[in-house]
Design a protein that fits this description.
Its main location: cytoplasm. Keywords: Cytoplasm, DNA damage, DNA repair, DNA replication, DNA-binding, DNA-directed DNA polymerase, Magnesium, Metal-binding, Mutator protein, Nucleotidyltransferase, Transferase. It is an enzyme of class 2 (transferase). Its EC number is 2.7.7.7. It is a single chain. By secondary structure, the chain is α+β, with helices and mostly antiparallel strands. Among the domains are: 14-76, MutS, DNA mismatch repair protein, domain I (3-Layer(aba) Sandwich), CATH 3.40.1170.60; 170-226, 5' to 3' exonuclease, C-terminal subdomain (DNA polymerase, domain 1, Orthogonal Bundle), CATH 1.10.150; 243-359, Dna Ligase, domain 1 (2-Layer Sandwich), CATH 3.30.1490. Helices cover 37% and strands 24% of the residues. It has helices at residues 14-22, 47-50, 60-66, 77-94, 120-135, 147-154, 170-175, 187-195, 201-206, 209-216, 220-226, 257-278, 310-322; strands spanning 6-11, 31-34, 42-45, 71-73, 97-102, 105-109, 139-144, 162-165, 243-254, 281-291, 296-302, 331-342, 355-359. The strands form three sheets. Strands 5-6-1-7-8 form a five-stranded mixed beta sheet. The protein is globular and about 60 Å long.
């Protein structure tokens, strides 16, 4: 079998780096993309800010406590999307097998060596050089024989570096890493693993499959494989996005129906812009509500035909939020998601029942 050559390219502090590139006054200073409001959240942080422990998803008030000189800038998603298109155009020169993961990262299968550079290492260097020359931004890259190791490797020399994990070193290298570094092992699972005495890849590898199945169910085979540096997943350029969503945290808890509905409509508009630009339309609309006490619920509506207009999305979202109004509890956050994508088959959709789901 031919050994795959896979590169994981990850832009360095992408949103914040774009802002620093476009505003010289931000260069070399701690920058957070997001809102400095009392209920705001950091969407991205520059490396200068990360030195103070500022990270994405951190509440803005906490970020400012950690870094009083932190500069907040509003996100400009249209600019980030345009830069992402430039970056993906660079990828296309080196391979036809590109699997985007987000605006700022992707897997590339360069086994075919489209540019005749002989090694994946040289290909990664060329890609990073082109990105820097054409966007003014730096990228890091991980090179390996599978996706799992390539993604781990891209974080190993950040920022503006690259690292390769060869077939000869893969399994042994994984053994040295803490399990919370592994893609697919989230914070909750990492805590569970540590409670079972699994701190590193070596600890994970030492556990028999039966033990992992007893404690992790259907994920056991994945953990068993990655502990040995194994991952057979191909780079899939036709990977279908399953949903598009947007959410916002209000500056204060809301109880007035009109204000809550306005927030839902704003999120619906954000989602619709993405759906329209991608010509991706879904059959399921979900509204998420988080109250001031952090209790969270969702309301979902599915239908046989796609939601193919913004007005239809507005109607569905309003019906869903109105199913929980009026409320005596303050609403902290609302979100709207469209999923179950399909080709647009109609401009209107029939009314169906609302299905409610509650989440702790």
């Amino acid at each position: 079998m031919v050994t795959r050559k896979i590169i994981h390219v990850d832009m360095d502090a992408f949103f914040a780096s774009v802002e620093q590139r476009d505003d010289p006054n931000l260069r070399g200073r701690p920058v957070a993309v997001g809102s400095a409001a009392a209920r705001g959240v950091v969407a991205a942080a520059s490396y200068e800010a990360r030195k103070f422990g500022v990270r994405s998803a951190l509440p803005s008030v906490t970020a400012l406590r950690r870094c009083p000189d932190l500069l907040f800038v509003r996100p400009r998603f249209e600019v980030y999307r345009e830069v992402s298109r430039q970056i993906h155009a660079v990828f296309g020169r080196y391979t036809d097998l590109i699997q985007p993961l987000s605006l700022d990262e992707a897997y590339l299968d360069v086994t075919a060596d489209k540019q005749g550079l002989e090694t994946a290492w040289r290909t990664a260097k060329a890609i990073r050089a082109d990105i820097l020359a054409e966007t003014g931004l730096t990228a890091s890259a991980g090179i390996s024989y599978n996706k799992f190791l390539a993604k781990l490797a891209s974080d190993h020399r950040k920022p503006n570096g690259q690292f390769a994990v060869t077939p000869e070193m893969g399994a042994a290298w994984v053994e040295t890493l803490p399990v919370d570094r592994f893609h697919g092992v989230g914070p909750v699972t990492a805590r569970k693993m540590k409670g079972l005495g699994i701190e590193t890849g070596a600890d994970l590898r030492a556990k028999p499959l039966e033990f992992l199945q007893a404690h992790f169910g259907s994920s056991a085979h994945w953990y068993y494989s990655i502990a040995r540096g194994e991952d057979d997943r191909p780079v899939n350029p036709n990977r279908v996005r399953k949903s598009s969503g947007s959410e916002t945290t209000f500056d204060r808890d809301l109880v007035e129906a009109a204000e809550i509905e306005a927030g839902v409509l704003q999120m619906a508009d954000d989602v619709w812009r993405w759906c329209e630009s991608r010509q991706a339309f879904g059959r399921t609309v979900t509204v998420k509500v988080k109250y001031g006490d952090f209790h969270q619920i969702t309301r979902r509506r599915s239908q046989p035909m796609v939601v193919a207009t913004r007005d239809a999305l507005h109607r569905a979202a309003l019906e869903l939020i109105r199913s929980v109004l009026p409320t005596q509890k303050g609403v902290r956050l609302v979100g709207v998601t469209v999923s179950n994508f399909a080709d647009a088959q109609a401009t209107t959709a029939p009314e169906l029942a609302i299905f409610a789901e509650a989440a702790a």
